[in-house]
Design goal:
The complex is a heterodimer of chains A (about 270) and B (about 350).
Chain A: H1 4-17, H2 23-26, H3 29-44, H4 59-67, H5 72-82, H6 84-90, H7 93-96, E1 100-104, E2 107-110, H8 111-137, H9 139-148, H10 153-183, H11 192-219, H12 236-254, H13 257-268
Antiparallel strand pairs in A: 1-2
Helix pairs in contact in A: 1-8, 1-10, 3-8, 3-12, 4-8, 5-8, 9-10, 10-11
Chain B: H1 10-34, H2 39-55, E1 58-59, E2 66-67, H3 72-79, H4 81-99, H5 107-131, H6 137-166, H7 173-205, H8 211-215, H9 217-245, H10 249-258, H11 263-269, H12 293-302, H13 308-339
Antiparallel strand pairs in B: 1-2
Helix pairs in contact in B: 1-4, 1-5, 1-9, 2-4, 3-4, 3-5, 3-7, 4-5, 5-6, 5-9, 6-7, 6-9
Classes of the chains: A mainly alpha (about 270), B mainly alpha (about 350).
Chain lengths: ~270, ~350
Amino acid sequence: MASVQGALLDLKRLDRLAGGDTPLHRLDPRAKVLATLVFIVCVVSFGRYEISALIPFFIFPVCLVSSGRLPARYLAAKVALVAPFAIAVGICNPLFDRTVLLHLGPLDVTGGWVSFASIVVRTALTVAAALVLTALTGFASICRALVSLGMPRTFAMQLLFLYRYLFVLAEEGGRAARARELRSFGRTGRGLASYASLLGHLLLRTWQRAERMHMAMLARGYAGTFPAAQHGSFGAREFLFVLFWSALCIILRLYNGAEILGTLVTGYLP
Amino acid sequence: MHMADALLSPAVGATMWAVSAGGVALTSARLCRERDDRLAPLMGVLGGFLFAAQMINFSIPGTGSSGHLTGGLLLAILLGPSAAFLTVASVLVVQAFFFADGGLLALGCNIFNLGVIPALLVYPLCYLRLIGPAPGPRREAAVTMSCALVAMQLGALCVVLETAASGISVLPLDKFLFLMQPIHLAIGLVEGAVTLAVVSFLRKARPELLGRGERARAASGRLALAGVLICALLVAGGLSRFASEKPDGLEWSVAKASGAPSLAERRFGLPAWLGALQKRTAWFPEYQAPAPAAVTQTGTASGKGSGVPGVVGTVVTVVLVVGAAALLRRGNRESATPEA
């Protein structure tokens, strides 16, 4: 998150992707949420030295991206940007784990590098799956799916409120931050004192906005809950979608697809 | 200090999901009972405020680095523990879905580290106990700073414990602790200073806003107790069981600290072909155990420990995946053009 405006633009772009109209977009959100969860659990359940068995799992995000007509380059850039913490922790693995696990000709690969690569692959897979889910479904639909899967209504309402006012407040915060930057030279004026009063004023305005919103909601007959949005149906297509991807993930979890392919290919070589 | 999916094992992730989901259910039910309908829009926009505030940085004098607010304690002071917890949790959910900060499986861990700890544990158990009915400025400063520090240290400690219990990263527990705790000491100081500054600004500008958290004081004792009990049970039961099931992270670092790896087991568990290569590994008995079975098999079969089938298979799979993507994309384009 380099700047507030940049982050906001990014958010809006991801949000707009959910407005697409492909069979995948039209699928009931519950099906997509369930399939993504199965996928993530399967991916992270591998041991720490597994790489080759993880590679076939890329079929899930790749298929969804291509048949959902999502911009692959944009999503890949987001995935690459996102993983500093995992990589920062993972990069220590080669330092501590120097067992040689693999020989590739003259090259000895230590366990540390293998597990580091495994962490990077996992990060790419799980982050890509989460982003693809958001881009295909949209946040409001995900909330709806989560409510029908058992999330408390109060929390769902909080999520929807937050999502509605996120853009408004982030823009307001961005304007305040830019105004402060324009008025500060070098490092003066960017310290704690001005930061605290900036946040304080932002908070006051936020609070006043909440009071206005509450009055407007009362005027429109708000009585503690939102009317439920229309529900999609969990039909045969959804069932097949979940079944197919869960089965594929579980099969790929049990059998190392890449390894089998590799032995097949190398088996025919002299 | 967002946890990431890649460093989590499903067992730890699921345990923390259960804890956090319990927290969400508990606090949602409590807010439902309170039936304060002004609270819903207020929590929503304060979530947005927190989101915006986390993106604005300020420079820390003398260091050249910059810090920002995390906000759990500030919201708890403003809204009371339940509403603050739900707000922080909702911000984390949005971050997980849109910025993939952390990830979906790690969401439970993140909600626990950044939401449950400051709002449901530190605020009722430390802040409210220490602050007293009418705090002077010095007392308020000391209590806010120390509570922010405690919350941040506990959060960092949980990140370390969750990572160690998952056993994906091989960073030893003690080294990771030495890395994380001092960094989060500094972050906690910043957090405390910002929280204090914003609260004292509000006290000057609109003191009536600070009343809400104080009104929630009466009921929060029971909630905190129940929360602590559930968390303690789940975390202790869940994490320790998984840690002992998979003897890598925690147990391994304990063994390392005590300096007594079990020699018999090590000899027993090793494939013979690795014997010559493991001079350095006398201290790391666990590392051989989870080595991919397929690699070991092909290694013994061809007699020289080659990873060729794995690598070839990986390359072929990548080619297949890319081919499938290209096909799907082309199919899409063809089906798209007649419509357009």
